[in-house]
Amino acid sequence: MENRELMQQVKRWVEEAGEYIKTELKQVVKVEQKSNRSDLVTNVDKGTEAFLVNKINEAYPDDLIIGEEGTGRDVSTTDGRIWIIDPIDGTLNFVKQQENFCIMVGIFENGKPLLGFIYDVMKNEFAYGGLETGVYLNGTKLDKPEDLSLADGLIGCNVGMYSENYKHSKEIASAAIGVRMLGCAGLDFLSVIRGKQNGYISNLAPWDFAAGTVLAEALGFVCRKYPDSDYDILGDRQYFVVATPQTFSDMQKFF
Amino acid sequence: MENRELMQQVKRWVEEAGEYIKTELKQVVKVEQKSNRSDLVTNVDKGTEAFLVNKINEAYPDDLIIGEEGTGRDVSTTDGRIWIIDPIDGTLNFVKQQENFCIMVGIFENGKPLLGFIYDVMKNEFAYGGLETGVYLNGTKLDKPEDLSLADGLIGCNVGMYSENYKHSKEIASAAIGVRMLGCAGLDFLSVIRGKQNGYISNLAPWDFAAGTVLAEALGFVCRKYPDSDYDILGDRQYFVVATPQTFSDMQKFF
After folding, report:
1. Which residues in chain A touch residue B197, judged by CB atoms under 8 angstroms apart?
2. Which residues are recorded as binding Mg(2+) (chains A, B) (predicted)?
3. Domain extent at residue B224
4. How far is B176 from chain A (nearest CA, A)?
5. What ipTM was predicted for this assembly?
6. How many residue contacts between A and B have a Cβ separation below 8 Å?
7. Is-contact A172 A155, C-beta < 8 A?
8. B147 a known binding residue?
9. Is B114 found in the same domain as B48?
10. I need a labelling partner for A144 at 20 to 30 A (CA). Which of A71, A195, A202, B150 fits?
11. Are residues B99 and B23 in the same domain?
């Protein structure tokens, strides 16, 4: 199957998952705590992951899958094709706001980014694609955004890192023209790839950065373990940065 | 004229102003700095203020007007009817993102809140009304949201105040379940009155809080100069808080 056909197939699955989420939002959502009071999971996160995992398993039984809500935590090789799923990124926003969350799917092949999907369900903004296919937003191909410097744009920053100035992150954010905190990594990636923020620094699990990394790298952005080493799609939570090349270079001057 | 008719009239003006902004966004926007590099004004801010001031002056020549972009800075009495306008709240977002900004109009009569209007132009979310008319979002009447405690919801906080823990604001934000920074006071007010955030702490000029205060007080929220004194619609920039009664009460325990 061509990458373009695969892109269209997964796009439809993610849209169907979005319809499922909107239907579930009309009913009472069951919320559970995970590691702490702001780390939540709902029956809808679980249902969405199960829906996507089922589609992938049926169509591509040999592919590996890692999902935020428990799928495939024992994956230990990047050989072959790996799907990395965050069924609802921004679950706290989902629970408290019923918006400002997204579905994310990243596909890697032999450790290399293949296709990424970020769908802001309630705003109906859907970015998808990769290096070979190009990156699209609701059907329109995205160009490489301007290579803005740190001082000339907005930046997203994890509140905990900002609060502690972890590895100069507060100083870096303060050197930008403004800082934004949205509570949803996928929305920060969307903002970056659309040229609305020139960077984002956070502490992310692979399902938080996989989809965004495929899209961002395809458009020429830098994606690194923060401040400057290779990210690991099989690793635990890691400090992470996505930025325009110039913004990334400006950040490195703080170290 | 009845309050309800006035509400409908101003709603139409603000919608027309929104159409003007969307048209101007298709052309090159001229940006100037005001007090610092993140305090911007554009030809569209000025054009929107001029449009609204003109409508008010034609219909209500005896009313006083205060606008962010220079209208009526010499107003020194709260007698009669005063209109307080922020033509584009979130100008930095407007310039860098072409979204996440809003038009705000607050009307006070003899110092008391009468009608408020907050229009998120690009998302087409329009909240308007007051104590007598009720508060509406895109035509649907808003109920008083649940009286959430500080620990049970999200809070918006000004990044500078958070950064310095100004008057315990960082500790207070950390006691909430999460903190959000949107770069647009009007969007925080919209989020609060819709029950999606339980509070917002910032440093605001009257045009930043006038519209939101009318809407929030009509729905039973507490609006105070932060941490706890009367706000001043003729004053300079002031520390400001809007919150559910329970969240406000929880905040006071930090002092």
Report:
1. 96-97
2. 68, 86, 88-89, 208
3. 150-252
4. 9
5. 0.95
6. 64
7. yes
8. no
9. yes
10. A202
11. yes
